[in-house]
Amino acid sequence: MATDLNETISQDSNSVQNERIDFDAWADHVLEGGQLTREQALQILETDDDQLLHLIAAAGRLRTKYFGKTVQLYFLMNAKSGLCPEDCHYCSQSKVSDAPVPKYNILKRDKLLDAARVAKERGAKTYCLVISARGPNEREMAAVESIVPEIKEKYDLDVCACLGLLDRQQADRLRACGVDRVNHNLNTGEEYYGEICTTHTYADRVQTLRNVRDAGMEMCSGGIIGMGESLGDIVSMAFDLKDLGVQSIPLNFLNSIDGTPLEGKTDLSPQDCLRALAMFRFVNPTRELRISGGREIHLRTLQPLGLYVANSVFVGDYLTTQGQAPDEDYQMVKDLGFEVTTSVGE
Question: Which domains does the chain have, with CATH numbers?
Fold first, then answer.
């Protein structure tokens, strides 16, 4: 009877094994220049928790191939807060938000320079200058054009500007003043976009990225998961970013802020976040992948596993929410045996 039971267990084990995805073979395919299909990307998001470590290890091979053991740090400066006429449902600064966030126009030179000093002291490679707006007005454009050369000369930082929708002329002006990269997130898949914003379209965001690309700057664009989108919407976003040729992809996990239309929404597990990071790495293997807002809330103690797949994090606070203490990030990077990439052009 014992022999029969052992045979049954063995057969069941083989059956389960046959259903397991060979993520290492997928990684081999990508490393040889191949690409995943949308169906395979969806399978990653549907992976059982039992296969999660196998998935992370395979995605980690791609990270190691293109980024080694390096980690890039980004520092975020909320240069203009609140006062936004758009209705992005996730955002505490939008016109449909009742969240008690600070409201101020673009900061003066001294405050922007002081924030750049902090970015440098924290080992950041990139200083992200962000304003809340549909797009920059002339006063805001002039302020950015004035401060960016000073930041770069004094602190030798890359500068990423996030100013809302941009036309080609504005993009050309940002390039001329020394902006290295512009952030403008797609936020979600095209089919779901109308559920989270109605005051501008997905096509508007794509056009801004094209204007940035055509002006000769790098594109930084990612999104937010956990807003009620389908797994297919997440896959669509990953492939759209690939097709656009985006160089840097920040992946956020919804921090459902009280007072916003998405308050109280907490659908993500740490495993969901790790699967999403792995899928983005497989679809965009050579691109910088950043673990962004909400990592402390949703990845929690599994944050280090995320850096086996991603190669970048924000150090410090986000726009209107607090981040993990910088010393904890430094320790996490050190414990992983990774090193912070600090010099521009490294």
Answer: 63-337 (3.20.20.70)
